[in-house]
TrEMBL record:
Positions of transmembrane segments: 34-52
GO terms for cellular component: membrane
Gene3D superfamilies: 3.90.550.50, Spore Coat Polysaccharide Biosynthesis Protein SpsA, Chain A
Keywords, in A-Z order: Membrane, Signal-anchor, Transmembrane, Transmembrane helix
Taxon lineage: Eukaryota, Sar, Stramenopiles, Ochrophyta, Bacillariophyta
Organism annotation: Phaeodactylum tricornutum (strain CCAP 1055/1)
Name this polypeptide is given: N-acetylgalactosaminide beta-1,3-galactosyltransferase
Alphabetical list of InterPro entries matching this protein: C1GALT1/C1GALT1_chp1, Nucleotide-diphossugar_trans
Disordered: annotated segments: 452-514
Similarity remark: Belongs to the glycosyltransferase 31 family. Beta3-Gal-T subfamily.
UniProt superkingdom: Eukaryota
Molecular function per GO: glycoprotein-N-acetylgalactosamine 3-beta-galactosyltransferase activity
Record carries keyword Electron transport: no
Membrane topology qualifier: Single-pass type II membrane protein
Length: 900
């Protein structure tokens, strides 16, 4: 007690906390515990004093037609307001607002009856019944309102009121104002959301009361959350519960009797039996356990902490509830919802107590299943634990609950959870989970402590057999366990900030934190920088594909696998795609032409001079390194009349591709053009069939030798060094490997990647495709999906010019979406126009008038538009092909070589 008295002055006395402040500035839970000890000795007398002196008033407030009608709850308030007894009790004896959630009518009725028969009627603010998953039922409303009208024995202060007992209808003159309000959720919303609905109604109602001066802002409301079927056991519940949540003023030695000490804890009503409490284990399943002797001694058994909530009945101040940082409405079932609420209360508020006098019974004999799905467990860890602890938890969780689960699956669940709209990582906002297992749930702490003794290098439980084996190995190898247990320094920046923990505590926690290395399968490494959120989302929607070649040619009898014709028109021709690379022609652009092209100071010059460069340095380093470079196959579509363009491509960037062919209607080995016939006419309006045959030819002949396939038209300019470096980047490698880990080179599957310039068709973000202009780059998995799965099954005989949207639609069928290819500064890598166009382009005021503005997705203007290491430009014709090349590669006469 003495310690408690000393602690008093340090506690905050403000009676009204600002919303949001709560989670970070909450009083220390230990101090809260000591307060509770005081609270329980508070004389019972007070209650009678307040209750007896309170008159019963019936009032209605003037209507206001302009009350916002956006929310159904708001519309119902006016009605409810007229019906509720108005009564102010002041700061120490607030009224209680009850939320009963359930769907069984008998259970709901039993709970509401118990509230009215076991609670001072004058202190009931409102009883909100949320019927979850039931359409409006008038008979249920009537049954509930009979209770409401005073038809069962009830109390006003200490006075029993039996005036209407047994009557089917309340006598008019003695009827009480209605306190029951029923909300029907026709579509089931689950426990968390239903509670939130009930609370929101109460909050709005209370606001209205305050506006109408019918409730003092000094008066708190106590919230009692009940599960349908729960019944209050004794009339002695409200006093101790009030005192556990609000410490009355005289104890603080304050003159001002309106200042009460408000705690942000909750009371969990006892359902389990004396001294018992609800806890949970490393699988996050509910466990009923004995309270420790120490906890029981602290307050002589009058109150003791509980790590979790049984969910039957929970009392807390309305403000406490409203200030909890999260109410994850996706939590449907009772146990996950209660676990989440318990974490909120312990880590972001003052914790949960059980009281000797707050007991309930439940009609439901068997409690609902109290465990979590693996997704929910992963989400729980992502929300509440820092990375180090989450990994320990993963080990303990999988060992007991789910030995077949791999860390990759776990992380996939975690990242999916993190991307949900309502998700908040609590580790930076509240106390951390380490505090919880040290102070509140040491049993769980011991299990997690044991799980970190697993040696590093334990293979992830790829199957139960392996994990069983490695578990044996652990037991047999004390040295390994000892070594793993050695303390290592904490990685700076890994420890979340805790606004309210004092320095000593912080030291304690940090000092005991040990580095934990996740045992890896093979050599799973993460990229230096994780994928962007959208990037990961795109990658994780697609399924990995076996990249082994599957023969689709079927004897090359039909389109699109008929193959190519040689110069004599005979089928069966296969071009040597490395011919250009092996015999690169010199650039035929010199003298006056070159000088003139170089001297122009237009926007093309500016963009290439000021921003876009070939990354010569990284290219040289990559060439020097012993690492195998990625092989790029460049496929161009063209027709005979455009072959002069092909010559210029060959002299400039084409020769930098590892493989190069031009799909044309005339085979010319010197130009690397190949006559690839296709269904329908040789016409721009039939591009889709042309691309089908071209990609099938490439797949049939060159698939196995190349890592990447870039397709585009004959007015395309590719910055091949930049493209290759991009494709070899950690980001793209990680993306092709599922989005989390870098590949180790042994993979036999790949996530299909479809890279290019993303456009939203007509501005529709659900219809994103890669613009054909700059061409698009596919990895093996993507090309194979297109040729093996897509072409035979989708749009096989469609004739259309817009091959790019058709390719995107085909990919979309397999959940393959254009990958986000902007660089880290938001610069685009693939360009639909010439450099100068992007340099000068500005959005029109009315974006709907400009297709490019409409189709574009978050692009920047001017210099910022292009990534410094862009990979492709479009509409590069005639001399421009030479000119861009000369500017990029420093071929201009009087100019010093351009270095990146
Ligand atoms: C009705 O409510 C609105 C918004 O709260 C307020 O501006 C207005 O003055 C009120 N009107 C009356 C008649 O009370
Ligand atoms: C290729 O197609 C174009 C356009 O249809 C046509 O003009 C040309 O004659 C064709 N060339 C050959 C060799 O068929």
């Amino acid at each position: 007690m003495a310690t408690g008295a000393l602690a008093l002055p340090t506690m905050s006395l403000n009676s009204k906390r600002k919303a949001g402040e709560h989670g970070l500035r909450q009083g220390d839970s230990t101090t809260a515990r000591l307060f509770l000890a005081f609270a329980c000795f508070w004389p019972l007398m007070i209650m009678a004093l307040f209750a007896a002196s309170s008159p019963r008033v019936k009032t209605s407030i003037p209507g206001n037609a302009s009350v916002p009608a956006s929310n159904n709850l708001r519309m119902e308030i006016r009605n409810a307001l007229d019906r509720v007894d108005i009564m102010g009790y002041g700061p120490t004896h607030p009224r209680v607002a009850v939320v009963v959630v359930g769907r069984d009518r008998q259970n709901l009725i039993a709970s509401v009856e118990s509230v009215f028969s076991k609670t001072d009627m004058d202190r009931i603010f409102v009883v909100t019944v949320v019927v979850d998953g039931m359409a409006e039922d008038l008979t249920l409303v009537q049954d509930l309102q009979k209770i409401d009208g005073g038809t069962i024995p009830h109390w006003h202060g200490q006075t029993p009121d039996l005036h209407n007992a047994g009557a089917t209808q309340p006598k008019e003159e003695e009827a009480h104002g209605r306190k029951v309000h029923v909300i029907f959720n026709a579509r089931q919303r689950g426990v968390t959301a239903s509670r939130a609905d009930g609370v929101e109604f109460i909050r709005l109602l209370s606001e209205k009361h305050e506006q109408a001066a019918l409730k003092s802002p000094q008066e708190d409301l106590l919230l009692l959350l009940m599960e349908g079927g729960t019944q209050l056991e004794s009339r002695r519940w409200l006093l101790p519960v009030t005192q556990a949540l609000i410490v009355p003023p005289p104890l603080l030695g304050k003159e001002d009797s309106t200042v009460a000490m408000k705690l942000a804890n909750a009371v969990s009503f006892n359902l389990e039996g004396p001294g018992k409490r609800t806890s949970f284990d490393e699988t996050l399943a509910a466990v009923i356990s004995e309270s420790s002797a120490e906890d029981m001694n602290q307050n002589n058994g009058d109150s003791y902490p509980t790590p979790a909530l049984n969910g039957a009945a929970i009392a807390l101040r309305l403000d406490t509830y409203l200030n909890l940082p999260i109410h994850d409405e996706s939590l449907q079932e009772a146990w996950p919802a209660n676990l989440d609420l318990a974490m909120n209360l312990w880590l972001c508020a003052d914790g949960i107590d059980m009281l000797e006098d707050a007991k309930v019974t439940s009609i439901d004999a068997s409690p609902p299943a109290a465990s979590l799905l693996p997704q929910q467990a992963a989400r729980f860890a992502a929300a509440w634990m820092d990375e180090t602890l989450a990994k320990k938890f993963f080990n303990a969780y999988t060992k007991t609950a789910n030995p077949d689960m791999t860390y990759l699956e776990w992380e996939t669940f975690q990242s999916a959870a993190r991307q949900e709209p309502g998700f908040t990582a609590m580790t930076s906002r509240c106390r951390d989970f380490k505090w919880f297992i040290d102070r509140v749930n040491p049993e769980l702490g011991n299990v997690l402590q044991a799980s970190e003794e697993l040696p590093k290098g334990k293979p992830m439980a790829a199957n139960s057999e392996t994990s069983a084996k490695s578990a044996d190995a652990v037991e047999g190898n004390a040295n390994t366990a000892e070594r793993a247990n050695e303390k290592t320094p904490v990685v700076p920046g890994k420890t979340p900030l805790h606004g309210e923990r004092n320095d000593k505590e912080r030291q304690e926690v940090d000092g005991s934190e040990e580095e934990f290395v996740i045992p890896e399968r093979h050599d799973q490494k993460k990229p230096t920088k994780p994928l962007c959120k959208e990037c990961l989302e795109i990658v994780q929607r697609a399924r990995p594909v076996e990249i082994a070649y599957v023969d689709m040619s079927n004897g090359h009898r039909e389109d699109p696998h008929r193959g190519a014709r040689d110069t004599d028109g005979n089928f069966g021709y296969t071009h040597d795609e490395t011919a250009l690379r092996k015999n690169p022609p010199a650039i035929n652009f010199m003298g006056d032409d070159l000088a003139r092209a170089c001297s122009k100071r237009d926007n093309n010059y500016r963009m290439l001079h000021e921003k876009v460069k070939i990354d010569f340095k990284a290219h040289a380093e990559a060439e020097k390194s012993l690492q195998k470079r990625d092989k790029i196959f460049c496929g161009i579509y063209s027709i005979e009349s455009a072959h002069p363009r092909i010559q210029r491509i060959a002299e400039t960037w084409g020769q930098k591709c590892d493989g190069f062919i031009v799909a044309s209607n005339k085979t010319d080995a010197t130009l690397n053009t190949v006559d690839i016939p296709h269904e329908g006419p040789e016409d721009y309006s039939n591009m889709w069939q042309k691309i089908r045959s071209m990609l099938s030819y490439i797949y049939d002949n060159y698939y196995e030798k190349y890592d990447w396939f870039h397709m585009g038209g004959d007015d395309l300019y590719i910055l091949v060094e930049n493209l290759r470096l991009y494709l070899e980047s950690e980001e793209i490698k990680t993306a092709a490997n599922g989005g989390i880990y870098l590949p180790d080179g042994t993979e036999t599957t790949q996530v299909p990647l479809f890279l290019g310039r993303r456009f939203a068709y007509m501005g529709d973000m659900n219809d994103i495709f890669n613009s054909g202009g700059s061409g698009y780059t596919m990895n093996k998995a993507a090309l194979k999906t297109l040729v093996v799965d897509g072409f035979p099954n989708l749009f096989s005989h469609a004739h259309t010019f817009s091959e790019d949207t058709m390719v995107a639609r085909t990919f979309r069928h397999y959940n393959i979406f254009p990958y986000e290819t902007k660089d880290e500064n938001g610069g685009e890598r693939y360009m639909p126009f010439m450099p100068g166009h992007h340099y000068g382009y500005r959005f029109p005021t009315d974006k709907s008038t400009d297709w490019y503005a409409k189709y574009s997705i978050n692009i920047k203007e001017g210099l910022d538009h292009c990534a410094a290491h862009s990979v492709a430009f479009h509409y590069v014709k005639d001399e421009a092909m030479y000119r861009l090349h000369a500017l990029l590669y420093g071929l201009c006469p009087a100019e010093p070589a351009l270095e990146s």
